[in-house]
Amino acid sequence: MKFWRKRGKALALLTVLTFVFGVFAAGCGDNAAENGDTIKIGVNYELSGPVATYGTSCKNGIMLAFEEINKDGGVLGKDIEGLVQDNKSQNREARNIAEKLVSQGVVAVIGPATTGNVRAAEPVLSKAKITLLATAATAPEVTYNEKTKKVRDYVFRVCIIDPDQSQVMSNYIFDELKLKNGAIIVDKDNDYSVGLGRTFKEFFTAKGGKIVAEEGFVPTDTAFKPQLTSIASKKPDFIYIPAYYNQVGLIIKQARELGIDLPIMGADGWDSPKLVSLAGEGNLSQCYFTNHYSIEDPAEHIQNFINAYKEKHDTTPDAFAALGYDAGYLMAEAIKQAGSADPQKIQDALLNIKDFEGVTGKLSYDEKHNPIKEVSIIEMVDGKQKLIKKMQPEH
Amino acid sequence: MQDLLQQLLNGLSQGSIYALIAVGYTMIYGIIQLINFAHGDVIMVGAYVALGAVLMGFGFIPSLLIAMLVCAVLGVLIERVAYRRVRPVSRLAALTSAIGVSLFLEYTMMYFLGADIRTFPPGVLAERTYSLGGVMITNKDLLVLGTTVILVVVLQYIIFRTRTGKAMRAVSFDGQAAQLMGVNVNNTVAITFFIGSAMAAAAGMLYGIYFNSVQPLMGLMPGLKAFIAAVLGGIGSIPGAMLGGILLGMTESLVAGFGGSMYRDAVAFIILILILLIKPTGLLGKGVQEKV
Q: Predicted ipTM?
């Protein structure tokens, strides 16, 4: 018995040591990656679950970029290999996958798509000192810790931040559409939605507008007519719904069924082909949202991207695909400028990126790792997107 | 005033959806005293089958019938596999088994079909909106309400006017005695599940069309709400389920419409707790007599 107990202790020690070395080796996975034939980059996305269309589009954009880069000879003479993982749109899975990717020796990670999932994955990567490049996570908190007033060193993003979206939308509504009284509906269970609703109210009332009604819902809700009826009785000029397409679609449909034909505004969470099938084509008129880019932009590099994407996926790329595509190229550019696939050097290179020309606009970083970019305003006309204009937010 | 009417109407249409689901729930409970927690998920399967049929080109009525048939068979299968052997042992065992079936259905669907929302193609049901003095109502509202009323009448007829119904009532009253009198208990329970699950499929398709969305967890919340509706109306009582559903829908709508949209679900569950504390037999439930 004693022998076995000793043996057991030795085994336990061995296990712990293996684990520790495993983690350690993973933490400095750059060696493995640099010695290998490829540069491994983690791709952590929502490929199933409630926001699967965001994640899938981002992933498609990233992989298209990697494919094009590899066709042109790769970076530093090596191919880029995207390790694609599905986080099922769940915070916990997003974190598990970050851990898994670190242990697989990636030099950087792109994704997840949503603010909540990025925030779940971030601590793992920051600890391993591996850069997380977020594509569509728009909450300020993602790159900047409001509590400690510190920038999260290893988190960067390709997209504009939420306050940029609500600021541009409130300027557009107040100055150009000349509407003064608004109603807001937010998803109370969603940081993104609550944040946009709050900042929109701040910007809009600062300009002299009035918010006459504020309503909320939870993600399991499917019946929105009670809230909509109550909003209609307060007689607003428009309704601002910064939420995800799966609920926005139902809300717009039910609003039109109640005979509410007011303009309805929102943000980039609207951008999904599913919005049209959920709301119904005929109901999607007089609807506006802020977005990262528009497929109608005639610029050559944008149209080239759209055609390449269409050829591969048989559908027009939404903003998430465009952000993914930009993230793929931005990562390659950072590795090229770093001259090495060392995670720390990649982080340094990203800090110094200047005027990177992507399909979602020209990108440089401010001190909080947020890109300074134009915001597009899109109008839905009978279910089709139409680019109205691009506006520069004030930082 | 017009707002109040509109809110009551919103509640009526939401409530008739709860009622539609609660009717199947309460029927199964009435016969075998099992709270079939998988009922909400049979609804979800029904919605998927109906959606599949519609996408294959079938019309509204044929798709509905296909979904009802598939789910009826599924219901019988669930009873045979997951409940039959544990049913006589203890109610708790059957209840636990029901929760297992519920999770099994949800995650099997998610595995094979993914978790993203699907929608019925436009035109399955030509949608119309009517305005009655400023109060808006759609033909979908009327369809759901009408279907619920028809189902209640048909079920009441089956249970109180047919031989099968008599057997069901006998099994419900005392399974062992019924068996001694020559009633085939297992068959009767199977028939109960057959009918109950077919109703669930009908509810599923209507729910999917009404909210224009079908996804693997769609049955979860409506299933719970329908359970509350069934308890409110008196579990086991079919007209009670209908009354309970409509009352619950209206309460929720008034709560959400007059400033409490975040408390809608909380109020529903508070009603459940209050009913269980104050009048466990529900509004239309029979008093329970302890058998000696």
A: 0.86
